Amino acid sequence: MSTDLETALRAQLRQTLDGTAYTRFAGRGEVTRYVGKVRDCYIDRARGERILVCTDRLSAFDQVIATIPFKGQVLNQLAQYWFEDTAAIAPNHVVGAPDPNVTIGRECEPLHAEFVMRAYLTGVTSTSVWKAYERGDREFCGHRLPEGMKKNEPLPAPILTPSTKAGKGDHDVSVSRAELLASGVISEARFDEAAAIAARLFAHGQARAAARGLILADTKYELGVAPDGRVVVIDEIHTPDSSRYWYADDYEARLAAGEEPRSLDKEYVRRWMVNEGGYSGDGPPPPLPDDVRLEAARRYIRNYETVTGRTFEPDTREPVARIAAALGAS
């Protein structure tokens, strides 16, 4: 990482984008604000559009932990890269991207489930396939798991492990297809259509990652129904927030040695919280030291540059005013 970018990262610690609270947008009527874990959303029902401002907030263990310098810019631009790359595989909600932190998408009706594709026996959270396996479970979300596996080994084949969509502060719950259908939150036809999209996207993402010397171990997709009735990809795709990336070059050696794979995602923060912060996932999280925030930022940027082959160019202007100017907001 260049000296200039390192300097910019340290300076950005003092002006990360924690959130926005715009009330008016030029050329738009009434807009409703909704705050998610990472994105601030402004819904323009008259136009049928949603303005998504990707903040620097980092979510782990189903709650906001801290802010990471330039994280929002990295995520938004990486999502744009993947949306363009996969447009022929699955339709998505994107209308435009007027700012490094902003995507404008068509307003869709979200499916009431997250579609998680997993190819490896891994994870540190309570909903991970590894934690279930470690407890002795040999069935996960309706999939039988072989005996004798160890952490971070590849599964016999990628599996779809849906989860419920938790609100802020609540925990997602991994469920099987049968359980999700029995709950009535999604129809069988919609589930199977979304599952097919998730499988195609994951296979494509794994191939793209492999070509860049990476392993896409797992990922989460959010999908919704567009006004024309199609199931489309929304939110983000194949970012370090929704995906687990490992370096491929030393994966086998580290697996044989019982070491964790080298990662390019927010798993670094999760591991720090568990191993250094003594956090189990419940209650207030430990504060992240600046050196951990900076290292997380470096990993996000390396992910962007490795996946896209492009150099990350941060916009160092104060973000709230910059985004307001781009959107005509106040």
Percent of residues in helical segments? 25-40%
- CATH class identity of the largest domain: Alpha Beta
Beta content comes to 15-25%
| Net shape | globular
In angstroms, what is the radius of gyration? 19 Å
Structural class: alpha+beta
Would you count the extended β strands for me?
15
CATH architecture of the largest domain: 2-Layer Sandwich
Please tell me about this protein's structure.
- This protein is an alpha+beta fold.
- The chain folds into two domains: 3-109 and 309-327, Phosphorylase Kinase, domain 1 (2-Layer Sandwich); 115-267, 2-Layer Sandwich (D-amino Acid Aminotransferase, Chain A, domain 1).
- The protein is built from nine helices and 15 strands.
- The chain has helices spanning 3-12, 71-85, 129-134, 177-183, 188-211, 251-256, 267-275, 290-308, 319-327; strands spanning 32-35, 39-44, 49-54, 57-60, 63-67, 94-99, 102-106, 109-110, 115-120, 139-140, 143-144, 154-160, 214-225, 231-234, 243-247.
- Strands 8, 9, 12, 13, 14 and 15 form a six-stranded antiparallel sheet that branches.
- Strand 4 (57-60) and strand 5 form a beta hairpin.
- Helix 2 runs parallel beside helix 8.
- The longest helix is centred in the middle third of the chain and has 24 residues, at 188-211.
- The chain is globular, with a radius of gyration of 19 Å.
